[in-house]
Amino acid sequence: MKTTKIEWTDKTWNPITGCTKKSTGCLNCYAEVMTRRLKAMGLDKYSNGFNVTIHEDCLLEPLTWKKPNNIFVCSMSDIFHENVPFEFIDKMFEVIKATPQHRYQILTKRAERMAEYFLSHEVPTNVWLGVTVEAKETKFRIDLLRNLEVSVKFLSCEPLVEDLGKLDLTGIDWVIVGGESGSKARPMQEQWVLNIQLQVEAQGARFFFKQWGTWGSDGIKRNKHANGKMLRGTIVQQMPVG
Q1: Model-level pTM?
Q2: Is 33 exposed, middle or buried (CB count within 10 Å of its CB: 0-12, 13-18, 19+)?
Q3: Does 66 score more than 70 pLDDT?
Q4: Which CA distances in Å does 228 have to 99, 112, 129, 184, 222?
Q5: 43, 199 contact by CB (below 8 A)
């Protein structure tokens, strides 16, 4: 059973919470907004606010999930944040290796630290690794991902805040695209999305369009659910093979 509204995964696992802004996609961070809400509700896990916090007591959660799941790792943080010791990441990967029935989807904006970590560690076969590429200035992250030995390598172009131009998707298996949500959301233009979709299809990867967000394909601001996830009249939500 899905326990998250994120359409490309089944569950989230958050042994780390909190983060700091890294690039333009972080401007209106959904996790920061959600953390404030959860703290206000009195949840102990979020009592430290959006400061990077390690939760040893959450490490073993996936061991209790017997049914195979796609698990999004650190949806409320970034596993490769500078304040997370490699020793704790080691512990997380021990749990990942101990639960081969699951597929773990790890997404980071800190591609440099990810690459540093995997200089001395192998990526488990049940891990998908991804980097966020929301603007042209972050395309360098693709190069840090593509040369790693991983079963599935993916990009999250969400929130897409500008046209990315030409993309070299060599070695990339899957690309997710989505617009920004929230009262301060920046609009996403249809042509930016189509530019990515055409390149993904031409280069043999899989394409997943998640949502328009707060701004519709017609450039009108409204509820994200009203704007939906149709791209030129079709829902395109392909998943990778892995």
Answers
A1: 0.96
A2: middle
A3: yes
A4: 35, 34, 27, 18, 10
A5: no
